Amino acid sequence: MRFRLLRYCLVSSLTLATWSPGALAEHSVANFPDVPPTPDAPEQSQPRVPTAPAPPPLRPARTEGAVAARPPFTPRGAPGALRDADVDERKAEQRRKDWLLSLEGVTHAPVDVGVQLGIETPQRLRLFGGLGWVPSGYMGLLTGIAANASGDSYAQALLEHGEYTGRTWHVQAGWRPFRALGLYGDIGYAHVSATGDLDLASSGVPQLARFGGGYTAQTRIDMWLIELGYQGEVGDRLVMALALGVMGTFSATTQINAVNGAPSNDAILNAAATQADDALEKYGYVPTLSLRLGFDLI
User: Fold this and answer.
1) Is the dihedral of CA 167, 169, 248, 246 positive or negative?
2) What pairing do the DSSP bridges indicate for beta strands 125-134 and 183-199?
């Protein structure tokens, strides 16, 4: 019995000792409401360690082909920014400066009047070719020079009093060393196919005037030519040129036929044709004035 009473007292004492501080504190605050509660002790803050900024995100590496395929950026309006149309226009302008392809009307007085096509390279080398027509007035000057040098009356009558017309074709090549100056020099070849008609009644030869009819002559003349001229352009399109030169006959072949009852002595006619050819080859030199007006096709 005593042992149980002793154990009960011991347990009661321990229970009272444990409960008393909290109870006392609670009752103290309740009894004194104006007294502010005691703040808890602040916690000691730990020092903050600075952190390094996060690195920027990595960009995917571009392949070499992609870099090469991407054109350099040039802002619009910058001096180096050229549109495709501007590039094409500059190329065309440079091509027109370097090359010439002209279609021209031309006269080599007193030989022919015609047209020609010419090309000029960036090195200023020139090549021209054309076709022409020989007016009677042009041919009369050439045959008149040869007639005055001939000693045969038939040949003189045929050359001086015959009415000649014909056709020509020519080629010539040259060099124009200075585009800005426009001076050029050409050499070339011309072929003349002429047809002449002589009426004996109006030949001026008394011994032939009593015969009726007349003569026809077909003449083939090979000529060389030399020109020195000046060429200019207006508006990069219109081509104009003026040249002085000389043309000379180095080969002539004439055939004479009697028509309408005229005397047809072959020996006399052949002799007259030979005299005419010799006169043309020896004295068939004429100064020329060449005029050209054309359009640059490039």
Assistant:
1) positive
2) unpaired
Specify the amino acid at residue 45: S
Please tell me the pTM assigned to this model.
0.66
DSSP state of 202: G
Q: For tokens 């040129």, name the residue.
A: 241
* pLDDT tens per residue across span 218-266: 999 999 999 999 999 887 789 999 999 999 999 999 898 888 888 787 7
For the record, the structure tokens of 254 come out as 């004439």
CB neighbours of residue 215 within 10 Å:
26
d(CA 9, CA 20): 16
E strands, the chain, in order: 100-109, 112-120, 125-134, 163-175, 183-199, 214-234, 238-259, 285-296
What's the length of the chain?
A: 298
Regions of the chain with pLDDT less than 50: 19, 23-30, 32, 35, 41, 65-67, 81
Q: Which residue type sits at 294?
A: G
- Alpha carbon separation from 273 to 106, 185, 218 (Å, rounded): 31, 35, 10
Residues 151/274, Cβ–Cβ less than 8 Å: no
Question: CB-based burial of residue 128 (10 Å sphere; 0-12 exposed, 13-18 middle, 19+ buried)?
Answer: buried
Question: Which single residue is written with the structure tokens 């076709």?
Answer: 131
Could you tell me the CA-to-CA distances from 173 to 62, 130, 295 in Å, in that order? 59, 12, 19
Are 111 and 190 a contacting pair, CB within 8 Å? yes
Q: How far apart are CA 260 and CA 255, in angstroms?
A: 17
Q: Give the type of residue at 22.
A: G
- Which residues pair with residue 292 across a beta bridge? 106, 241
Give per-residue pLDDT as tens, 106-143: 999 989 999 999 999 999 999 999 999 998 778 777 77
10 Å CB burial of residue 109 (0-12, 13-18, 19+) is: middle
